[in-house]
Amino acid sequence: MKASPEGIRQAKKQFDYKGWTQEYLAIEVGVKTRQPIWRFFAGKPIERYTFFEICASLDLDWQEIVEKPSLKRDDPAKNKLETISHNSEIASVSTVSSVPAEVDKRHYGLNESSHYYCAQRSAEVLERDIKELRLITCNLDNGCSLAAIHNGQIIDTATGFTPLEGLMIDYSSGSIDSKVLNEMMRKDNQPDSGASIDTSSSLVGTSEVSSEPRSVGSAIDTDNLRAKQALDIYLHRLRSCLGSMLMVLGGMDAIVFTSESSDNSEIIRELVCQSLEFLGLKLDLKQNQNDPVDSDIATTESKVRVLVIQQEA
Question: Fewer beta carbons within 10 angstroms: which end of the chain, N or C?
């Protein structure tokens, strides 16, 4: 990202008002040298996160400072792509991305290769550099998992060392107070109830439909109250995990779903996207229902892209 001529004028005015040196601003921003500061004031491209930090340190709105891409009238297809790209850039929960300085590389219980593939394939579909994107990849098949990806690296996941962490999945409860099991046993007056809270509170166990997760998904179209309750809990926890990742990333350029064969996956995508409309996300309902593969199913005016990516065989 780089500052526009008017943005540079505003930044220099604020810089002079504070009476700082470029060396001092570099310390405030957290960069090792003043080179990014010099490049910023010279109107040259710098890393997105550093751009945000400079604007925040100078009490500026980065959207008023950044140079916006100009549209050329002679190439409508390219103009549309540039408009989508620009809209993706301005979708942000806050003006400063809160990416942790040190990233924990231990991703317990996560199929990292699947999430990395989906992220790289998404960058190709969007024709963007993966290091410029903030993505949340959603693998919502039988082993549900989420990953927050920044600069091409996984920085947060919805999986833990044990199944008692993160999303409610087919045969595990997800995040739950570990003392609940003791309370259940106490009420039963039994030293060992013989039931596993992992499975009893899982998506399948809560629904009491069958041992097949796809049958639970089918219950969207039925009057099975237990199955609907299971899906409500599942969606609530999924939205909660997505919200925490948004805070970690400081915004989102795209949400990525894996292409699934499970029942009513298009409805799950729609319900999730409805929760993200406050970001300016607009789902193309028709494309969502047409079994999309490796495609962007957001509308052209959406500020956040929505992709469905076919997993590697």
Answer: C
Together in a domain, 283 and 183: yes
Torsion of CA 313, 304, 49, 108, to 10 degrees: -40
Provide the residue range defining the domain that includes 50: 5-68
Residue 203, in any domain of the structure:
yes
Asked which of 24, 48, 68 is the last residue of a domain, the reply is: 68
**Dihedral angle at the C-alpha atoms of 131, 132, 136, 140, nearest 10 degrees?**
-60
Split into its structural domains, the chain has a count of: 2
Residue 255: its H or E element:
strand 254-258
CA distance 209 to 5: 62
pLDDT, tens digit, 9 for 90 and up, residues 127-174: 999 988 999 998 876 567 888 999 888 888 877 555 566 565 555 555
* Nearest of 309, 179, 201, 190 to residue 255 by alpha carbon: 309
Burial class (CB in 10 A: 0-12, 13-18, 19+), 309: buried
DSSP conformation class of 132: G
- 253 near 136, Cβ under 8 Å? no
What does the alpha-carbon distance between residue 106 and residue 103 come to, in Å, rounded to a whole number?
A: 9
Return the amino acid letter for 141: D
Q: What would the pLDDT profile of 283-304 be if each residue is shown by its tens digit?
A: 999 999 888 889 999 999 999 9
The sheet carrying 145-150 orders its strands as 153-157, 145-150, 134-139, 254-258, 305-309, 295-296
Same domain flag for 296 and 188: yes
Instruction: Give dist(CA 56, CA 159) in Å, integer.
Output: 32
Nearest-angstrom CA–CA distance, 177 and 43: 52
- Residue that finishes a domain, picked among 45, 68, 91: 68
- Is 78 within a domain? no
